[in-house]
Amino acid sequence: MKRLLTLLFVALLGGQVFAQTGLTVGPPRVFFVSGSGQGQTQYVDVTNPSNDYTLELAVSLEDWAYSEYGDNILHASGSLPTSLAEWVSVSESFFSLGPGETKRLQVNVQVPLEAKYTAEIPVRTAMLFVTQMNPRIGEEKSGANIRLAVRTGIKLYHRFIGQQQADLEITNLRYINEATIGQYLELSYHVTGNVWLQGPVRIEYLNQQDRSKKTNEDLTFYAMPGDKRKQVIGVPEDLPAGDYTVSVFMFFGEENQVKAAEMDFTYEKPH
């Protein structure tokens, strides 16, 4: 009987684990701060959580950027103006990990002497991938053989010493009610500072009739300088129908800065 063999390649970001084959890489984000002509080393741990399988691994770099809605869009190494890839070196490009073994990689960023801070490219980034080169064979209920492999990526960031101005502007907040996609808020913002930003987004709904208040569980946003982004915020399913004032707060920066926006809208329960 003929048996099918399929290669299943699973790409993960941020050090997540794929239970079948297994590979963890962390931390999910590594930050470098250095000046012209300076080098800086950080450390990344790679672990094989398998009990019985040796992993053959390779390290590679790619460029990346966020989409308008915050998805990671990958690009060839060195193809973006913000690419950090050419400044990065890793202590080992190929290595093996036995079952349960962990290896600590040295990741070095060497800033060229001629490289200077510019407002056009205030930070540089790259994605460091660790890829399994020896896929493990599994079998589906149908009898087909599947080779399972994992590629896990973490993000590298670099900024110059002394250049850190965290800021953003909320440019729009609107309520959308469409039969085909449901009801949600859409928050638009522009990162006007010169560093990467991350922080919580807090949403509060004030019922204009009885003055009761409901708060969403905080969301987390990540953004890069110059990004013009949109954040989709689901309306709570248990929110009663009525007229509301919604307030949105974005917290960011080392000094816990906050930007806020609010709007009035009428919420109708979905049919």
What are the secondary-structure elements, in order, as H or E?
EEEEEEEEEEEEEEEEEEEE
**What shape does the CA trace take?**
globular
- State the helix count: 0
Number of strands: 20
- What is the fourth-level CATH superfamily of the largest domain? Immunoglobulins
In terms of structural class, how would the helical and strand content be classed?
Answer: mainly beta
Rg on CA atoms, Å: 23 Å
Highest-level CATH class of the largest domain: Mainly Beta
Helix content percent band: under 10%
List the helices and strands and how they pair.
Elements: E1 5-13, E2 24-26, E3 29-33, E4 39-47, E5 55-66, E6 72-75, E7 88-90, E8 94-97, E9 102-110, E10 123-132, E11 136-139, E12 145-159, E13 168-178, E14 182-191, E15 197-207, E16 213-215, E17 219-223, E18 228-234, E19 242-252, E20 257-267
Parallel strand pairs: 1-12, 3-12
Antiparallel strand pairs: 2-4, 4-9, 5-6, 5-8, 5-10, 7-9, 10-12, 11-12, 13-14, 14-18, 15-16, 15-17, 15-19, 19-20
